[in-house]
Amino acid sequence: MVNLTRNFFIGLSNNKFFNENAKRWGFRLGADKFVAGTNFDTVIDTIKDLNQRGISCTVDNLGEFVSEKEEASEAKNRILVILDKIHSENLDCHLSVKLTQLGLDIEEAFCVNNIREILKRANQYNLFVNIDMEDYSHYVQTLEVLQQVRDNYKNVGTVVQSYLYRTEEDLEDLKDLRLRLVKGAYQESKDVAYQKKEEIDREYIRLAKKRLLGDAFTSIATHDHHIINELKQFINENNISKDKFEFQMLYGFRTEMQYELAEEGYNFCTYIPFGNDWFGYFMRRLAERPQNLNLVMKDAFYTKDNQLKKEPIITGAVAVSLMMMWKRKRKSKNEKVS
Ligand SMILES: Cc1cc2nc3c(=O)[nH]c(=O)nc-3n(C[C@H](O)[C@H](O)[C@H](O)COP(=O)(O)OP(=O)(O)OC[C@H]3O[C@@H](n4cnc5c(N)ncnc54)[C@H](O)[C@@H]3O)c2cc1C
User: Ramachandran region of residue 147, left (φ > 0), alpha (ψ -120 to 50) or beta?
Assistant: First the structure.
């Protein structure tokens, strides 16, 4: 059942129709709980508030699966302006970016030029750039692009996913790089990835400990308090310096815990997504935590002060169709099983 729900939302996250149209709808379905704003200017205050609490940020101008060069160039230009603003506003903030937004699906060399330009600008300001890891169909290419830029730019890192069988082997090659460790957000086949939560969690803890004993900086990106507690204990027992790692969580998730970890003196970084291209990101968050579906239904029909909306037409129609698709899918799966 958990897998069925997860697969359903991940399927939706790749749905071109919804992704394209959602850009025009503006935030719906409660997405504003997890997507901090529509453009960079609207998230500057959020970053400043977090910085005041001793929390650093990484910003992601949402966008992926870009298929036109023009669109990728526009994304790159927007990111260059964001870097200028991070610098001029003196924010404690770095950049996260997905290579498909910069044209990985169009032409690798074109994408490499785009990321180079971004790294060059970030380097001028001494800012770090993290290349997010996408689904497995982009995995090898992402590492290839990284390979082409890492010698010239020391301000670049990427993400490793504990659900992939090959991660431990790849970590050898990436051992000198600053990395973010995550469980993995996409739906991958059992040929390449662990499927069971216990296995993915076990690998996460194992890989995190290995990284913490190494030299390079690691971002421990998870909302899982069991894992965080086990790693805190490991860090204490092994006298691992707090300069060697940080905890990371996504904007809108477990906010109190984010503050607490920062107050306990750990380096903490909040991942701040923003922009109109919110649908895929939001659906992946529903896949991880279907409890958030309550938010979707509530947002469809009620205003912020709990009044029934007068015109819940667009949001309501989308929410209801999502629910119906989900139920239909569940029914057909049950029929197949029974
Ligand atoms: C900063 C950051 C960056 C990421 N970047 C990438 C990336 O580049 N590529 C990629 O593939 N994935 C990325 N991810 C997503 C990641 O792969 C996981 O899909 C996602 O983090 C969910 O896994 P989890 O480790 O948070 O814990 P889960 O397995 O989702 O949760 C474990 C347990 O933690 C508790 N819990 C979790 N969330 C909550 C909550 N909101 N409230 C209360 N309890 C909760 C529950 O007890 C739950 O059972 C990123 C995640 C983060 C935090």
Answer: alpha
